[in-house]
Amino acid sequence: MRKHFGLAIALALTTALAACGGSETAPTQQTAKTDVEKPILKLGFIKLTDMAPLAIAKEKGFFAEEGLTVTLEPQANWKVLLDGVIGGQLDGAHMLAGQPIAASIGLGVKGDLVAPISLDLNGNAITLSNKVYAMIEPTLPKGADGKPTHPISAASLKPVAAKLKAEGKPLKMGMVFPVSPHNYELRYWLAAGGLNPGFYLPGDVAGTTGADVQLSVTPPPQMPATLEAGTIDGYSVGEPWNQAAVTKKIGVPVITDHDIANFNPEKVFGLKKDFVEKNPKTVKALVRAIIKAQMWLDADNGKNRAEAVTILSQPNYVGADAKVIAASMTGQFTFAPGDTRPAPDFNIFFGHYAGYPFYSDAIWYLTQMRRWGQIPEGKDDSWYLSTAKNVYRPDLYMSAAKSLVDEGKAPADAFPADDSGIRKEQGKFIDGVTYDATKPNAYLASFAIGLKGAQKVTPAGVK
Fold first, then answer.
1. Higher pLDDT residue, 15 or 110?
2. Phi, psi (5° rounding) for residue 462?
């Protein structure tokens, strides 16, 4: 993966700011592909920096090289985006990794969706309000420089949550959607620190039964304003909305998802299953274009990130100040004014097989849905794998990848040689638990907080 490249990006940013244009860039080598079934497409996205592969595929001409004319259309929130794909108003979209999985099992809304490519790894953080951070800051371990030692444990919030609960006003945290990585990462962090984030009852979208911390949904761009208004005490969100809190001086990011569940898949590209079946050449062209964009984003230790930041800052994409986007997307992450730390793996688009849609990644999300009661009944291990295979499609990804390799446009070793779709056992979680995708029930049983076995959630709690 790329090395610390923040300095190089900073030096290049001024040039990129001056050079950026808003129209689609003509590809340097046009490939006349006229055999795709549907050459004109409308794709949806949410204004977050991890939609970058789609923006880059358009602006750098990678869609055009594949014979595709693509319109990228921002959506108001994740529900609107999901409904747009299921309803056919959108041909595909930048989706939360958990969305197509949840739709396949009828969690929230039912829809037969396919994820032929993952868009990125990592990219989220958890931010606390200035008020709450001031309450925990004196208790945090400090380094020789006087700055807090990272990662910060959620255990530091236990006395704050207890104090607020005694005063009749529980600690409140925001996340972006019930089946979002942000929800599961926030819950994972809280539970690892001994705080119960609450369970979902059947048909319940709040998930606050037995909660020590009250979680609620807020659309990403509204997070800073909601925090500033005091409606929530913190939030879990993607960029640039944690950096926006730093810039506005209304909050302090305390941990990134890199330190909660390292190399966690964050977004995927989602399509309806029948669209995939009817338009196989179009899907292959889409995946090829996105892979090219991902390669461009991670090329040569991030040499293109400054240009990517400028493209994303345009109002038709993320629409945030370029400096705010650069604060997390250029190999570093700012936790507070004067506290910027190296974060070379905060946004990964191609390295570490970021684009490959591993079954094991889908299974991890299913375990978290079960852990917190969104899946109300226990399932056997085979169910997790078969459900993952119904949605995540590494076969489609590898078909596109191999065609690029055969044409000399991508190196063979950039893609997995193992076609099982299962990563090896994964560690580096904040609680020290190891994840083995072949044993999801044993994994669930390892947690002190969370459903396991045949346990169910009732209004009175877990039984």
1. 110
2. -90, 135
